[in-house]
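Q: Joint fold for the lines below.
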Amino acid sequence: MSPAIALRCGALAVAALLTIGAGAAGASPYVPADDAVVLERLPEKGDPALRDLKRMRAVLAAAPRNLDVAVAVARRSSDAARATGDPRYLGQAQAALSPWWAAAAPPEIVVLLRATLRQSQHDFDGALADLDGLLKADPRAVQARLTRATVLTVVGRYAEARADCSDLATVAPPLVVTGCMAAPASMSGSAEAAYAALSKALARPGTDADAVEWAHTLAAEIAQRRGDAAAAERHYRAALLLDPTDAYLKGAYADFLLDAGRAVDVLSLVGDDFRNDALLLRRVLAEQQLPDQAAAFAAHRAEMAARFEAARRRGDSLHRREEARFRLAVEGDLRGALALARDNWKVQREAADLRILVDAARAAHDAQALQVAADWIARNGLEDAWLDAARRASR
Amino acid sequence: MMRIFALLVAALLAGSALAHKASDAYLTLERDGATLQGQWDIALRDLDNAIGLDADGDGEITWRELRGRHADIEAYALRRLQVASGGEACPLAVTAHLVDSHTDGAYAVLRFSGHCAQTGPTLTIDYRLFHDVDPQHRGLLNYVEAGTSRSVVFSVETPERVVGGDSGGPLAQFATYLHEGVWHIWLGFDHILFLLSLLLPAVLVRRGGRWQAGGSFRSAFVEVAKVVTAFTVAHSITLSLAALGVVALPSRWVESAIALSVVLAALNNLFPLVSHGRWVAAFAFGLLHGFGFAGALKDLGLPTGSLALSLAGFNVGVELGQLAIVAAFLPAAYGLRATWAYRRLLLAGGSTAIAAVAAVWFAERAFDVPLFAAFAAGG
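A: Joint structure:
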């Protein structure tokens, strides 16, 4: 894969720190005192992959209908979005594909990339429609099937996801197939077998580092749900060794540490990436538990609230899961948290979505929402140690 | 093989969360009469993405680099923001370039002002910044008028929005649109001429192939009332249907057909085919004129928050304007009805002139050639 795209440099974090507290709206516009004042450090500073991407975009701008270049830019932009968590790259990926985006019959590769971008915008129905179309035309399209399995897992359609993963058994690398299967299987009654299969696949040497890191992250999450904290910790650390900058991984591990009451470890884990909302949320949740972080907590809490407000102003609903957690744990807004958790649950059905639904429902004493969660757990045979404990406690 | 593997892994990872602010620009627009004042905060990252700010390519944008591109930024941004009032553009000009910080970095701040030649009750804003380079971009507008503000979001899906016309409470808003309706019929010569063509013979009767003075004021009044009511009911129906988006007709067809309706109404006075039941013609052509009113209303813009109220205000205004014309016309026509001047000069001469003018309008509108555009203020 492309070289791991480095996260922000330290200087940028300092710049971000300075803006914290300024809120969503600018304080007061000014004329800089000096021509040499640096106003902005662009993300590509110190990141060769992003510099390459910028060069490729310049090439594309000169020939916007060149499909090969457009696809390369869209792919690289999607990689950048994943590595940095920055949605601007998704918009750029979409822009690269715009000559074909709304065409009646775009090239297959464009449909595949469009499905991925739609998934990123939580347009899961749109993504599935694209993927269904691709697989209807070519049932052997490996990447489309794998992507569909991933989307189906996110929306909680585990049986269909497992069927897609089974179909890949002979055509995709073993670790990919095992991971593909483990994600839905662990959510639908086969967590133990899924974990065992992943462990076995991980024991085999010589595979792609990104895939191994991803498999360790998945294994860690399954172990965590099964209540095996030692195994979860082991996998999280193994994954972090392979990519210490993966924001998704850091967020998942931070949640594990928060559950374990290790707030101090969360602060060192999330480091100084203040621009990443998901990591700032974990930082706020950790600081809330640490009396000596009271000042930082107050500042970061205000910053977090401002960012959710900014997302609301633009009409985004991509952060409902995170905002529900923030409203519940930090702001103590039980009703608001439950409303967000419920709306989120209508769209996304990952373990974290179920957990915030249960948390918010318990806090607000909402029997109906609790029943929705209980029905889901029973129907799918979900094993989750934390949810089991919560349900025992609420009985 | 490695590349395929990487792509497969990418497919699996695609679900990871987005965790940064997306591309937004902050637009403030304040209107005071014909004058607009505004501020537009645009992220330097986005500008760099669109037109390139990092002149020396070192990954940093300095004030010097930004200053060097001010003219380009201004041209680029203003081309993508169109403000119009009463169907006419309000040209904008940048008055100052500043800098500010938002949660996701530094922004260029453009202060601007503008002037609207027409001061309609609403502003139509067309916002297309970055739609080609980042379709996820949003323009967040804070619109301020008469001390109240409201938020509007522009996106690729909704680049055009109508603001204003809904400040100052429902009564004030109704009054605003009523006023516009009255002026519209008074300035819309084609509607007036159509109405006059139908009304001119109302004080007369047709006997033996000739126009003669009619009988009582009462019968003239009833004839006028029938024509006006039929015209009103008909155009209210189509105005509402078109304004609410139920029916849409191409404006060139509508405007041409309206001109033709004036020609026919005037010719009917010279070579009468319909002498009884003119109200039927008034109704049939009234349906057409309603679409014309709707076109004018579209230029004014309907405030989204209180569409029905504004539509009703506009319609009532049109009726009041029309009644004022009738109130002025009827007594005068009745008084003059027995004179030679009325029958020859006003009815025959007037109808001939109206038919001629409307025929030119028809040619202009149907074939899109300006014959005497300055006079053709109808529509």
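Q: Anything notable?
A: Strands of chain A lie at 38-41. The two ends of chain A are 49 Å apart (CA to CA).
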